[in-house]
Write a structure and sequence with these properties.
Belongs to the protein kinase superfamily. Ser/Thr protein kinase family. CDPK subfamily. InterPro entries: CDPK_Ser/Thr_kinases, EF_hand_dom, Kinase-like_dom_sf, Prot_kinase_dom. Helix content is 55%, strand content 0%. With 131 residues, it is mostly helical. The protein has a single domain, classed as Transferase(Phosphotransferase) domain 1 (Transferase(Phosphotransferase), domain 1). It is globular, with a radius of gyration of 15 Å.
């Protein structure tokens, strides 16, 4: 969600409102940036943002989707929209409470999915700086 929009899926007028949305799994595709995102990519996001860890896609299931297997590999020359880049930069500087709220989502993942996600992140984190 963040990589395609530059914004986190859970927002609110204050920290408590945002945390409530995280707990409820309340999110939607909001903003003009989603008009350019394929339905296959949106389907993957829906699979990955399910509230229940049992219903949520595993890393293997996510990697087996049409968007990852067929469409994403051809997008290597795609340029990120400036609003997405700005959103990613803003997300990087968010306060700890917002990041902790997003961790709540990750904690709902089963161990196997979390392990695969951690391995994928570490493979992408070539500088080993967590950014």
């Amino acid at each position: 969600y963040i990589l395609l929009s530059g914004r986190p899926p859970f927002t609110g007028v204050n920290e408590e409102a945002m945390l409530e949305k995280v707990r409820a799994g309340a999110w939607k595709f909001q903003g003009d940036c989603w008009e350019q995102v394929s339905e296959d990519a949106k389907a993957l996001i829906r699979m990955m943002l399910k509230r229940s860890s049992e219903a949520r896609a595993t890393a293997a299931q996510a990697l087996d989707t049409v968007w990852i297997k067929e469409l994403a590999p051809r997008a290597t020359d795609a340029k990120l929209d400036n609003t997405v880049i700005e959103g990613l930069q803003a997300f990087k500087t968010q306060n700890r409470l917002k990041k902790a709220a997003l961790e709540i989502v990750a904690r709902g993942m089963n161990e196997d999915s979390l392990k695969k996600l951690r391995e994928s992140f570490q493979a992408l984190d070539v500088n080993q700086d967590g950014k």
